[in-house]
Amino acid sequence: MDYIIEMLGITKEFTGIVANDGVTLQVKKGEIHALLGENGAGKSTLMNVLFGLYQPEKGVIKIRGKNVNIDGPRTANALGIGMVHQHFMLVDTFTVLQNIVLGMETVSGGMLHMDEAREKVVALSERYGLRVDPDALVSDISVGMQQRVEILKMLYRNNDILIFDEPTAVLTPQEIGELMHTMRGLAAEGKSLIFITHKLNEIKEVADRCTVLRRGKFIGVVDVASTSKETLSEMMVGRRVDLGIELKPQVAGEPVLTVDKLRVSSRRQGQTKDVVKDVSFIVRKGEIVCIAGIDGNGQTELVYALTGLISPDSGSLVLNGNDITRQNIRFRNTNGLAHIPEDRHKHGLVLDYNLGENLILQRYFNDEFQSHGFMRRDNIIAYANRLIEKYDIRSGQGAFTPAHSMSGGNQQKAIVAREIDRDPDLLVAVQPTRGLDVGAIEYIHKKLVEQRDAGKAVLLISLELDEVMNLSDRILVIYEGSIVADLNPQEITIQDLGLYMAGSAPGEVGRDVH
């Protein structure tokens, strides 16, 4: 059989870890080929080898039947290979058009000529339904729009082998639907797509075949249409995965968090606008309250105000009877609040620190970890090793593993371990399973339910409707900065919830938010 890509027996090693161990991947022309595996299974590493960012220790790469040596992205591009990376490779201060042509500019007499490039970009964006504003600054456009720019970069270079690395991890459900439509259109034109993901629904929706990796090893390749999601998840994790959650009935206890008439304004482009509008709610002991909404409806600013990252303009926050409205972050952290942030790189970890240092970020000043201003390294390592084992954090060098070298799922596990191990009264969990595989999702869901069952209060902020419906005792719907409904997940359908989130309630609004 003729394959457009063959990666045969690829081995790639880093310090203390074999990321790819004799992996084989074969992709046909015009197919969408999924690459499935847990966080840290070696998917991104394999694609970085194909794109020339890494050089393998062993193995052969064939493109269109010929052996090739891909020594860098420029060589990959010359072979028709393009890649949309998990963390976008865009220059924030450049325009959309400048980012697309970067490295492929037309220069004459020392002057940049952009007119022809603009025409080509506009034509490509219309042809593939990837509408963008060529003159917008990348720093001013949404994540979904940035992804369109990345796809257009590949198409501008006439790439016909397109690698998508976790392309849906940061997209809204609507943007995911648009991306799937685009991918099908590209494949129909004869382009070959490699789709790295761990979301089984998406694989079933768009992929033709699927190669599964587990802990750096090739497990198998299957035809997607004739393979069940259960089989795929078992191949990926090595055991049966149960995402079904049964919340034990229990009566919520005393209030832990009381939010009263909270208002937060945002100053953008010289204008001040309320993004959180007189929001009031209570979270009690022994319940999971979920704030559900389409991205960009004030959830981020609400969480920032709760956790101390920004100050609210008015209203009050009470935690365990203490008014924390104007208290600093350390006061909140040492008085019962824990926070799993939306952006694990920006607010969850110090990427240049090692794992052990990250696990004590909110405790380093305690006597256990310092003495007269000097860190007690032995205690830090012992503590880190206990959490690594208890929370199954996979890291090549244990406590000494640089945080930036860990997979996204293991970075997230580290944050969950650090926050829950502090035994908080209130856990604010924002998109806690974003970008995670089914094994890690199952694990984190169990940890959240354990907190609830232990009598703790959990405030969950999620865009995943299944997660919202399965985990919540109550659902608060946020729309344009206001809480528009307080719903019982037992009494509504997922379709009803979607309508509330879109601002068109299917009937009467639910119970009073208090």
What would you say this structure looks like, in words?
The protein is of the alpha/beta class. It contains 17 helices and 24 strands. The chain folds into three domains: 5-237, 3-Layer(aba) Sandwich (Rossmann fold); 243-336 and 425-509, Rossmann fold, CATH 3.40.50.300; 349-423, no CATH class. The strands form six sheets. Strands 6-9-10-3-11-12 form a six-stranded mixed sheet, with helices on both faces. α14 packs parallel to α15.
What percent of residues adopt helix (DSSP H or I)? 25-40%
**CATH homologous superfamily classification of the largest domain:** P-loop containing nucleotide triphosphate hydrolases
| Straight-line distance between termini | 64 Å
Which value, in Å, is the CA radius of gyration?
Answer: 24 Å
The main sheet comes to: 6 strands, mixed
Beta-strand percent range: 25-35%
Number of strands: 24
What name does the CATH topology of the largest domain carry? Rossmann fold
Lay out the secondary structure.
Blueprint: E1 5-14, E2 17-27, E3 32-36, H1 43-50, E4 58-63, E5 66-68, H2 73-78, E6 81-84, H3 96-101, E7 107-108, E8 111-112, H4 115-127, H5 143-156, E9 161-165, H6 173-188, E10 192-197, H7 200-206, E11 209-214, E12 217-223, H8 229-237, E13 255-268, E14 271-284, E15 287-292, H9 299-307, E16 314-319, E17 322-323, H10 329-334, E18 337-340, H11 344-348, H12 355-359, E19 370-371, E20 374-375, H13 377-390, H14 408-421, E21 426-430, H15 438-453, E22 457-462, H16 465-471, E23 474-479, E24 482-487, H17 494-501
Parallel strand pairs: 3-10, 3-11, 6-9, 9-10, 15-22, 15-23, 18-21, 21-22
Antiparallel strand pairs: 1-2, 1-4, 4-5, 7-8, 11-12, 13-14, 13-16, 16-17, 19-20, 23-24
